[in-house]
Amino acid sequence: MPGKAVPIGSTDRGTEGAEPGRSRSKRAKTATTSTRRAAPPDRATRSSAKGRSPTKGEQAERLESAASDGESYRLQRLASSRYGIVYDIDGPRVRLGLAWFVAAVIAVYLGLFALAVLVGAIAALAAAQTAKALRTKWQRPQLAIAALIGGAIPLAAAAGVALAGATIIVGALVAVFAASSRQPRRTDPLVDAGAALRSSVFVGLAAASVVVLYRFDIGAAVMLILMLSAYESGDYLIGSGATNVVEGPFSGLLAVIVVTGAAAVVQPPPFHAAGLWLYAMVAAASAPVGQILASAILPRAGAPAPALRRLDSYLVTGPAWLVLLWSGVGI
Question: What is the C-alpha to C-alpha distance for residues 21 and 29, in angstroms, rounded to an integer?
Answer without folding.
Answer: 13
